[in-house]
Amino acid sequence: MKKFHENIWFGTLKECVDEFYSLIDFVHREMPRVDFAAIVDEEAKTAYEACRTAASWFGFKCMSHEFDGDTVVLLFGHYGGGGVESLELTGDPEIDKEAIIDKIANSTDNCGLGQLKADEYTVFELE
Known about the structure:
By secondary structure, the chain is of the alpha+beta class. It is 27% helix and 30% strand. The chain has one domain (3-126).
């Protein structure tokens, strides 16, 4: 992970997803809501600076309780509309992390920004 600032993480998409995955509570089907940016200044000196100057914001959140499900279900989307993707997690970290990265890539691509790749920088802001 490149930089942290309170609830803001600045690093590659893979680094952010790896860090985020440990926060998922599979027993209670809960996790923090995540906002992420498709466009960031890779040369930002701090996570706060990267967040402040980032553009093209997306997010994903857990929808398990909305459907009274017994698994962790994620919904991804672009703020302003579009890029909607969904994912049901398996509980297998390697499969799930790759699937989250794929859904994020599809979401950004569907909004005309190209696929955000695992080795490209992003900002995660958690709530």
